[in-house]
């Protein structure tokens, strides 16, 4: 900084301090508040064209902030610190006295007022949780270059092109472009409502929509669903930004900054194929979308979608979508699909075929907890992504039924779904106790309705308790972000404790009407994450194996799921006008859970592997993720899985090969490769499927040289669904490292099975392949699956882990 500039800076700073109208002691009482206004900031203004328009709009917002403050506050009662114009429309002021804040809260056009707080370094966490930011990204040129040159196609609900997660990034360093049109990808941008041709901006390189089946079925509504690639739901934007969203984007929901978001492959490009809508979609539209995506030249295809049940017919692998995905794999596209949300029931898999990478969902160590402090000092734990009650004050507590008119049903009053029953003079300024009941149509939307009711009646906040008639069923919508103070007491113990305190401090008439509300409480801030506890843990909703051959649930010799990634409470991009989820309408980010959220994590990591190894097959990329996956959690203990009301050690039917480790996946040492001919041999070995069925479905018949068992497929796992006596299994490994390596093989045998492996040690040259033979012999009938693993440890520190799942039907006989 020059001397002249230093002087100007000093004078400006002195002038700012001189303008503060309080003495030193008064300064200690003053606070900084952030105020958000109604009009849209720059990032939400799709109508702005060019830097001049943006600069003019920013100047106009700043002037409006000044005029507004001058119109509602006395001169000298505040100092404006900042105008926020880009990510937020608002300002920060330094003000003394609650009367200033009260004036701002009541003023028109003010959306939200929040007291400033001390900040810590937090992100949306999954890149750090997976170790990707310190491992894979630096190895691939840094965060903004990771995934460069790779196109991820997403078949989903479209994309919101105005979101900062999808803005064009110009460079990763001096003169080096990040997003340039690749020679392989030939996709186009279908312009339409809210989606201009310029929406394909270099980050988004292709966008199309498919709705003919939906139109024919009479479900497509052009006003609601948009005849364009624009995401009117939010789900597609969420998955796209998880896979390949830009690095370090502020996550702001309900006017609160929850951290910063990054996709798994921030340098990758996105091609959106809209084939799903708020009502769902149809397979024929999805098939058309997949067809177009492969023709366009995507490298990775992410499908956070699937059928509602196992397809009818003799073989689940031969339904139209599965077959098309087989041909996508043949074309060199890595296909990643959600395994389904039917867990923890067994055989709830909805992604079936071995050519698909099927993804399970985990819970990370990030938790959003909240607490309610009662007037007697008792502290009750709960959840709720909501601001605290104002100023640390203890507010009166009132049950909803005690501040409602009596001409309404008890259920309508207690559920707080509507403001009409409330006597507002009684409810105003109190914390209202509402009850989670069977009347809640959609948990998250209903919780949002409770918050809206509290706001309408002027309540200080709400407390949602569990209904004893429902029992211990968890309230699953507790990750909805809220603008008003609120807490969900998600267990019966806390709910009971609150009611006991309330009833003992409420004075009633002989008829039972509440006369005096002496119970007091305050709600703390539930929006700040903590990072503790065992993780990852398999999420309860994540569908479980074993995989099945058909609708009568005959088990298949295929391991499903294949791999696990974070899927619970994932922050990612959203569409502000979402019609799919009412409670997220108007938001630019949403916190969602499901295997839909886990899937784009794997799609993004597959893109990182593809960036480093351009010529690897889809099977090799899947193998790299599976053989390097973690089976231990961050504490070093075996990963656990959520079941109904309990935790148990996870098995390969819960998490596949384990929790993905991106840094090791880009350098796996060995891979198990497979191609179209191998998958054809697999299909020809499926029980109950004849040659004619294969020819009709695939277009070619079975080869003369056939495999006897489906377990002969060269997968990075071994699954035998019906072991009678013994079986020989052969695998071929290929050295993809940059040096020759010696490996030793160790075996952890499944219960009831003796496994012999040859060779027990071997040396393998660069790019060479060799066979490993396993002889599985049943020693005891188990009538259940048991699990083991084969581990290959290399002299260059590569560790290749292969899960084994076996069902011993009989220990008699040989095969």
From TrEMBL:
Entry keyword annotation includes Signal: yes
Catalytic residues, chain numbering: 156, 235, 596
Keywords (A to Z) from UniProt: Glycoprotein, Hydrolase, Protease, Serine protease, Signal
Stretch forming the signal peptide: 1-26
Domain of life: Eukaryota
Any Gene Ontology biological process: proteolysis
InterPro entries with a match to the protein in the record: Peptidase_S8/S53_dom, Peptidase_S8/S53_dom_sf, Peptidase_S8_Asp-AS, Peptidase_S8_Ser-AS, Peptidase_S8_subtilisin-rel, Peptidases_S8_3, S8pro/Inhibitor_I9, S8pro/Inhibitor_I9_sf
Any GO MF annotation of the entry: serine-type endopeptidase activity
Pfam families for the chain: fn3_6, Inhibitor_I9, Peptidase_S8
Annotated Gene Ontology cellular component terms: extracellular region
All residue ranges annotated as the Inhibitor I9 domain in the record: 57-121
Entries under SUPFAM superfamilies matching the protein: Subtilisin-like
Residue intervals of the Subtilisin-like protease fibronectin type-III domain: 712-806
Domain (Peptidase S8/S53): residue spans on this chain: 147-658
Subcellular location: Secreted
Family: Belongs to the peptidase S8 family.
Protein name: Subtilisin-like protease SBT2.5
């Amino acid at each position: 900084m020059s001397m002249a500039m230093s002087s100007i800076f000093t004078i400006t700073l002195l002038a700012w301090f001189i303008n503060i109208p309080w003495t030193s002691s008064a300064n200690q009482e003053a606070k900084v508040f952030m105020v958000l206004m109604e009009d849209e900031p720059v990032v939400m203004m799709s109508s702005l064209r060019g830097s001049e328009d943006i600069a003019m709009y920013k100047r106009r917002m700043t002037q409006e902030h000044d005029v507004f403050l001058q119109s509602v506050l006395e001169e000298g009662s505040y100092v404006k610190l900042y105008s926020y114009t880009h990510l937020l429309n608002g300002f920060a002021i330094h003000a003394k006295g609650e009367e200033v804040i009260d004036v701002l809260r009541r003023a028109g056009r003010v959306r939200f007022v929040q007291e400033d707080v001390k900040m810590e370094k937090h992100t949306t966490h999954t890149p750090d949780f997976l170790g990707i930011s310190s491992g894979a990204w630096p190895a691939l040129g840094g965060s903004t270059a990771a995934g460069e040159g790779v196109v991820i196609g997403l078949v989903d609900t479209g994309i919101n092109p105005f979101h900062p997660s999808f803005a064009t990034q110009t460079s990763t360093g001096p003169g080096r472009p990040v997003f340039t049109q690749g020679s392989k990808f030939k996709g186009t941008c279908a312009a339409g409502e809210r989606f201009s041709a310029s929406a394909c901006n270099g980050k988004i390189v292709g966008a199309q929509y498919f709705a003919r089946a939906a139109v024919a079925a009479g479900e497509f509504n052009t006003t609601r669903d948009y005849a364009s690639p624009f995401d009117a739901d939010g789900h597609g934007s969420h998955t796209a930004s998880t896979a390949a969203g830009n690095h370090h984007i502020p996550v702001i929901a309900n006017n609160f900054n929850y951290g910063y978001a990054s996709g798994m492959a921030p340098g990758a490009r996105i091609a959106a194929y809209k084939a799903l809508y708020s009502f769902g979609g149809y397979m024929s539209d999805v098939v058309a979308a997949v067809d177009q995506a492969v023709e366009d030249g995507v490298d990775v295809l992410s499908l956070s979608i699937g059928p509602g049940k196992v397809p009818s017919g003799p073989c689940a692998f031969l339904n139209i979508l599965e077959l098309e995905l087989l041909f996508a794999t043949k074309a060199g596209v890595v296909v990643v699909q959600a395994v389904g949300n039917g867990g923890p029931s067994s055989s709830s898999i909805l992604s079936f075929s071995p050519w698909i990478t099927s993804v399970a969902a985990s819970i990370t160590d990030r938790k959003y907890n909240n607490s309610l402090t009662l007037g007697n000092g008792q502290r009750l734990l709960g959840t709720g992504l909501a601001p605290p009650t104002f100023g640390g004050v203890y507010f009166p507590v009132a049950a909803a039924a005690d501040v409602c008119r009596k001409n309404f049903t008890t259920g309508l009053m207690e559920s707080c779904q509507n403001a009409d029953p409330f006597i507002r003079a009684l409810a105003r300024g109190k914390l209202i106790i509402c009850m989670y009941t069977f009347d809640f149509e959609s948990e998250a939307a209903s919780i949002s309705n409770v918050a809206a009711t509290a706001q309408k009646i002027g309540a200080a906040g709400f407390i949602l308790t569990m209904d004893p008639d429902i029992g211990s069923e968890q309230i699953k919508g507790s990750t909805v972000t809220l603008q008003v103070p609120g807490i969900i007491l998600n267990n019966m113990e806390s709910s009971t404790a609150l009611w006991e305190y309330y009833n003992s401090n409420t004075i009633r008439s002989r008829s039972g009407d509440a006369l005096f509300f002496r119970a007091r409480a305050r709600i703390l801030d539930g929006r700040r994450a903590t990072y503790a506890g065992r993780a990852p843990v398999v999420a309860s909703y994540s569908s479980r194996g074993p995989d099945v051959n058909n609708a009568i649930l005959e088990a298949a010799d295929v391991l499903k799921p294949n791999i696990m990634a974070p899927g619970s409470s994932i922050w990612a991009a959203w569409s502000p006008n979402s019609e799919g989820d009412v409670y997220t309408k108007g938001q630019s980010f949403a916190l969602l859970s499901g295997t839909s959220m886990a899937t784009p994590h794997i799609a993004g990591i597959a893109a990182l592997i593809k960036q480093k190894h351009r010529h690897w097959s889809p099977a090799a990329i899947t193998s790299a993720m599976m053989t390097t996956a973690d089976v231990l959690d961050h504490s070093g203990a075996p990963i656990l899985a959520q079941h109904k009301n309990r935790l148990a050690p996870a098995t390969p039917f819960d998490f596949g090969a384990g929790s993905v480790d991106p840094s090791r996946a880009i350098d796996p040492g060995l891979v198990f490769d497979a191609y179209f001919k191998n998958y054809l041999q697999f299909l020809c070995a499926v029980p109950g499927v004849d040659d004619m069925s294969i020819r009709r479905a695939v277009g070619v018949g079975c080869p003369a040289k056939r495999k006897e068992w489906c377990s002969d497929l060269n997968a990075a796992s071994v699954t035998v669904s019906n072991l009678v006596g013994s079986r020989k299994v052969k695998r071929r490994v290929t050295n993809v490292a940059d040096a020759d390596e010696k490996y030793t093989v160790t075996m952890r045998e499944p219960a009831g099975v003796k496994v012999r492996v040859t060779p027990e040690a071997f040396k393998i040259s660069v790019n060479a392949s060799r066979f490993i033979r396993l002889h599985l012999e049943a020693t005891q009938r188990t009538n259940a699956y048991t699990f083991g693993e084969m581990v290959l440890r290399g002299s260059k520190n590569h560790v290749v882990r292969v899960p084994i799942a076996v069902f011993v039907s009989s220990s008699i006989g040989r095969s």
